[in-house]
Amino acid sequence: MDTLIFGGLLATWLLLYRRRGRTAVLVGWWITLAAVALLLSQHITSSLGLGLSY
């Protein structure tokens, strides 16, 4: 998951560096955020399925 976060930040930085529009940068952030939220929810529910508690 750390690699996904780093990759999303890198892609967004590249959009900023290449002077893309604000919309492209925001879309990059939202895609990264959605992917991280999906993976995090899957990670938490799979750990709870193993009987782990938080």
TrEMBL record:
Top-rank lineage group of the source organism: Bacteria
InterPro entries: DUF5993
Pfam families for the chain: DUF5993
Transmembrane segments: 31-52
Keywords: Membrane, Transmembrane, Transmembrane helix
Name of the featured protein: DUF5993 family protein
Organism of this sequence: Streptomyces luteolus
